């Protein structure tokens, strides 16, 4: 029996080792997008293969590989940690930049491990799909993987409210293959960008360019960050399938050729949430659920031109878990959270046309958000208890034209964008603010036209040691006389890259950036009047960034950057006397209130990054940020903003182990964020509590307190089993392993209740307007570890 077992074990090992796959790599000039004659080599192997444009590598044993792509007179590039799957033909595309030609006789070939561009020599990070999927604590969500980089903070373990270099979560922009996608999270905070779960399918991402500054002139509206998602190519041999059965969701994917000549190909994904089951199991009081879908269909022409169509959308639903443990925190959440269903979509098409001198890119898209929210006092659904009934839609139709070309040795890009938007809001809202009670009946129907144009150029000087980039853009809107002059939104920018040693560079960037306030603010209509039309302007942000960069051996990169950002014309709440720069990290809506543009602020700090891409099966990132974030109050004083986290530390590391095991860990520490205390005396008023459904913040003491130091350890492990025609992976991702203390230092406040669960009134004989509740004050519940595990099937 022992010999028989040994025989089958050896046979099984032989079968596994004989599993092979293939990869198809398209190599092109990054500037012109034209195919290149190139050579591809698998690192740690001596063999290589050459071809023109599209290069096929066959009979590669299953496993993880790094591919080196080189071409004459071009900088060498890499594809890192590509997982070769049995019986599959993977497809990737790589753009190469021309090398620095010193003379006719001498060409300097360099190896570029980390991405930079002429317009963005600083503040640009690139993360691949493989790095996202291996990142501990991200659970295959790009927004959480970005937390490993410097300058990036977050407010809660279960939400993707990213604040970058002290700016609010409303200041982030997102693009997929050149098409703007305003919403990338489920349960989006309207008027901001956060939510508890990402929408984008990480399996379809090739890589992501993350800018925390030095934004290219072709992108409008970014104040704090820009995400450029680059989708991968579909496989070329046949249709492939992938299924993920996870504790948090169920996802089905398909990709491959859609025509016999393989010129048409597609990526398709659908996903259904299991998150409500997980949240119910661990006792959370709210049960979100969702569906989403993503697709890309593309056509490659023999000329090199490409036509593609992109779409993604989501449906979000929300329920309360009435069986959750009745802790003071849970009861408070149930009292305050609304029932808030949403749906959204983005559809777009792009056409890239190659010409002798560069290329054109034409894109057209439409996106839409439908946001609803209903809340009754203590969730008792009677007409008298209705606190708000919110119904809003915002849709945009966008056209962009981009052109890359050269004039002599100067590289140019230029283009224009047009956006026609419609915003409607039919809502009834009761609310409490710093100045009193409000009862708003909103009936908005806003139509607004926006446009912009840009030009940017780059050139190298002094034997290619110095590279300069200069650009500008202009933006305008038909919203009002305050926004219709494009010269008021003149946005110049300048970048410098100076390579003063073989591995060292000094980088600098400065620029002015503008963004139109959210439609929730622009479209507020009360008594048939657009309340904010005469008071709102484009938000302006001036950036200064400088830093040193060191590219060492063995894929090591060290950077140190200092930044200073100066804001003006920030929307300011007239009712609460605070800048909207302090709001946006919670469920709900930002900006739907009377505003003006008196807000101003500044953020500044220093960042350090040490990054090592996979080498000898080890990878890691160390990031540290020290910074300040300050915005104005009603008196015009600069106070710490809600994003003023002085210290942010992130340490991520991973190891690829034998027998297809992978282990990774991430530790994050963030100093306490400012918090505004509660006005418990005013909160106890029966008329106020019955509308606010909870304690009221005292904005006269804006951000005068500090939350707790937030820290957590995340762990991820996965194991792959490779079979003849398919691959199976099991993974476990644990967020906040040891259950750290909650980041908020504010107390939990609710009503003292009688035997009928009604609030106890302190002075029942007083008139109704003067009655006060007895309040119960307690501590926040400790954060719970959140485990995510699942199984991945690839065919």
Automatic annotation (TrEMBL):
UniProt signal peptide: none
Domain TonB-dependent receptor plug: start-end pairs: 118-217
Cellular localization per UniProt: Cell outer membrane
UniProt membrane topology term: Multi-pass membrane protein
Keyword annotations of the record: Cell outer membrane, Membrane, Receptor, Transmembrane, Transmembrane beta strand, Transport
Main localisation: membrane
Taxonomy, superkingdom: Bacteria
Keyword Transport: yes
Ranges that cross the membrane: none
PANTHER family membership: TONB-DEPENDENT OUTER MEMBRANE RECEPTOR, TONB-DEPENDENT RECEPTOR
The name this protein goes by in its record: TonB-dependent receptor
Source species of the chain: Kaistella gelatinilytica
């Amino acid at each position: 029996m022992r010999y028989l077992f040994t025989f089958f074990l050896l046979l099984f090992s032989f079968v596994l080792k004989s599993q092979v796959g293939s990869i198809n790599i398209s190599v092109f000039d990054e500037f012109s997008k034209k195919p290149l004659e190139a050579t591809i080599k698998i690192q740690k192997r001596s063999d290589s293969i050459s071809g023109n444009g599209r290069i096929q590598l066959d009979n590669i044993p299953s496993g993880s590989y790094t591919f080196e792509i080189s071409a004459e007179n071009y900088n060498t590039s890499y594809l890192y940690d590509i997982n070769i799957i049995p019986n599959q033909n993977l497809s990737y595309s790589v753009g190469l930049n021309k090398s620095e030609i010193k003379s006719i006789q001498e060409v300097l070939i360099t190896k570029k491990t980390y991405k930079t561009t002429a317009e963005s020599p600083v503040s640009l990070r690139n993360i691949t799909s493989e790095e996202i999927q291996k990142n501990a604590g991200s659970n295959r969500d790009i927004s959480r993987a970005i937390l490993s980089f410097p300058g990036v903070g977050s407010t809660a373990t279960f939400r993707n409210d990213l604040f970058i270099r002290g700016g609010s979560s409303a200041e982030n922009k997102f693009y997929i293959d050149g098409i703007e996608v305003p919403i990338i999270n489920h349960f989006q905070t309207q008027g901001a960008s956060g939510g508890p779960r990402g929408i984008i399918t990480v399996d379809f991402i090739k890589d992501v360019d993350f800018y925390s500054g030095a934004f290219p002139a072709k992108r409008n509206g970014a104040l704090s960050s820009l995400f450029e998602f680059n989708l991968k190519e579909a496989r070329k041999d046949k249709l492939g399938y992938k299924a993920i059965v996870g504790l948090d969701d169920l996802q089905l994917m398909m990709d491959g050729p859609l025509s016999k000549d393989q010129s048409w190909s597609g990526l398709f994904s659908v996903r259904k949430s299991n998150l409500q089951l997980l949240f119910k199991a661990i006792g959370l009081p709210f049960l979100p659920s969702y569906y989403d879908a993503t697709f890309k269909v593309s056509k490659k022409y023999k000329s090199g031109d490409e036509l593609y169509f992109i779409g993604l959308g989501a449906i979000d639903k929300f329920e309360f878990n009435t069986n959750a443990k009745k802790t003071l925190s849970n009861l408070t959440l149930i009292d305050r959270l609304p029932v808030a269903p949403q749906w959204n979509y983005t559809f777009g098409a792009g056409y890239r046309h190659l010409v002798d001198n560069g290329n054109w890119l034409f894109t057209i898209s439409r996106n839409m958000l439908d946001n609803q929210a209903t809340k009754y006092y203590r969730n008792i659904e009677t007409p008298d208890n209705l606190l708000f009934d919110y119904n809003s839609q915002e849709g945009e139709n966008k056209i962009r034209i981009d052109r890359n070309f050269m004039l002599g040795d100067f590289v140019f890009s230029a283009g224009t964008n047009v956006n026609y938007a419609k915003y409607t809001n039919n809502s009834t809202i009761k609310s409490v603010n710093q100045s009193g009670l409000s009862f708003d009946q909103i009936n908005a129907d806003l139509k607004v036209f926006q446009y912009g144009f840009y030009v940017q150029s780059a050139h190298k000087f002094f034997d290619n040691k110095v590279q300069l980039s200069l650009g500008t853009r202009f933006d305008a809107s038909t919203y009002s006389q305050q926004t219709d002059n494009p010269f008021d939104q003149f946005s110049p920018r300048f970048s410098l890259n100076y390579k003063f040693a073989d591995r060292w560079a000094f980088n600098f960037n400065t620029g002015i950036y503008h963004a139109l306030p959210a439609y929730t603010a622009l479209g507020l209509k009360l008594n048939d009047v657009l309340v904010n039309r005469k008071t709102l302007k484009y938000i302006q942000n001036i950036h200064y960034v400088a830093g040193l960069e060191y590219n060492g051996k063995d894929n090591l990169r060290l950077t140190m950057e200092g930044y200073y950002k100066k804001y003006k014309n920030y929307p300011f709440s007239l009712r609460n006397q605070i800048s909207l720069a302090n709001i946006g990290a919670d469920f709900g809506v930002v900006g739907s209130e009377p505003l003006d543009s008196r807000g101003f602020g500044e953020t500044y700090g220093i960042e350090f990054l040490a990054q090592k891409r996979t080498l000898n099966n080890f990878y890691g990132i160390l990031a540290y940020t020290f910074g300040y974030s300050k915005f104005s109050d009603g008196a015009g004083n600069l106070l710490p903003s809600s994003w003023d986290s002085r210290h942010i530390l992130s340490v991520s590391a991973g190891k690829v182990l034998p027998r297809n095991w992978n282990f990774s860990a991430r530790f994050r520490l963030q100093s306490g964020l400012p918090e505004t205390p509660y006005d418990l005396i005013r909160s106890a008023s029966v008329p106020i509590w019955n509308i606010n459904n909870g304690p009221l913040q005292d904005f006269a003491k804006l951000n005068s307190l500090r939350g707790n130091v937030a820290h957590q350890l995340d762990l991820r492990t996965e194991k792959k089993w490779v079979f003849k025609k398919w691959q199976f992976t099991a993974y476990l991702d644990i967020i906040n392993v040891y259950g750290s203390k909650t980041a908020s230092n504010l107390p939990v406040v609710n009503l003292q209740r009688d035997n009928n669960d009604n609030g106890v009134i302190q002075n029942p004989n007083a008139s109704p307007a003067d009655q006060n509740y007895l309040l119960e004050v307690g501590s926040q519940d400790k954060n719970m570890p959140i485990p995510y595990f699942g199984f991945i099937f690839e065919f």
